[in-house]
Amino acid sequence: MKTVTLTVNNRPHTLTPSPERTLLDVLREDLGLTGAKRGCDAGECGACTVLLNGKPVNSCLVLAVELSGAAVVTIEGLGGPDGLDRLQQSFIDNFALQCGYCTPGMILMGKALLMQNPHPTEAEVKEFISGNLCRCTGYENIVKAIMAVAGGGEGNG
Ligand code: FES
Ligand code: FES
After folding, report:
1. Could you tell me if the CB of 38 is within 6 A of ligand 1?
2. Would you state the CATH architecture of domain 4-78?
3. How far apart are CA 74 and CA 111, in angstroms?
4. What top-level class would CATH report for the domain 86-150?
5. pLDDT digits over 54-91, tens only?
6. Hey, where are the domains in the chain?
7. Which atom of ligand 1 is nearest to the CA of 40?
8. Which residue in 38, 77, 102, 145 could disulfide with 134, CB within 3.0 to 4.6 Å?
């Protein structure tokens, strides 16, 4: 089996995944990073979104064997109880989650958008997250949470 070295949340890992295993499998089952959720397992819901080399991907569609040299960021890499990322805090402040299943993916989509476009319009936020499904919130507060950080004028750290 092919050996793959990559970083996840800036930590190096060496893996020997079997060919059919996905990035989502490896994150959740091998590395214990369960923030990325398994929803549809077919690229339809966005619950498994992580950043791969700075770009959002559906980790259920990425084969682990293709990840040599990759840099992956999951929700655990943004912040935790000791210090939340501004976008995580904004989701809390704006009541942008209910069950929370979509939330890691939504936050990472917001992060990706703000990295490439620090001051998006509301329409651009809606368009960017349109592939990520939320069954609870009606999306309004999610958009508000992202816009609140976008309008902050201090970057998006
Ligand atoms: S679990 Fe990957 S897109 Fe739904
Ligand atoms: S908060 Fe439940 S799916 Fe979005």
Report:
1. yes
2. Roll (3.10)
3. 11
4. mainly alpha
5. 999 999 999 999 999 999 999 999 988 889 999 999 99
6. 4-78, 86-150
7. 4
8. 102
